[in-house]
């Protein structure tokens, strides 16, 4: 059975980390997904820009969502590698992260993601690998 947007929204409510960061689920479809996160002054670094770690959180989170979307209910993906390149700074507003799985193996999934601001400007890109733990 496919993992849907509604499934991810329900799962998201049980995830304290995501609740702390107010991560929202925009959509999940097959091996692709989009999430969002509101940025306030508490997430800015000393120069008034979003801290780079926020881009990492978004890319890691949306990649996990895309993996669940592709593998379904019995999957518990765990990040094994994450690489993020920062392209542009931004400030307060809502950020959107999209991802797609580019290799769905039996034990490892690899995906790529990006973070954009509300105007659609690309802020960061990344790639991550996930150990895919499938219940038997």
Automatic annotation (TrEMBL):
It comes from Vreelandella titanicae. SUPFAM superfamilies: Thioesterase/thiol ester dehydrase-isomerase (SSF54637). GO terms for molecular function: fatty acyl-CoA hydrolase activity. Residues 47-122 form the Thioesterase domain. Keywords: Hydrolase. It comes from the Bacteria. The keyword Hydrolase applies. InterPro entries: ACOT13, HotDog_dom_sf, PAAI_dom, Thioestr_dom. Belongs to the thioesterase PaaI family. Its EC number is 3.1.2.-. It is an enzyme of class 3 (hydrolase). This is Esterase.
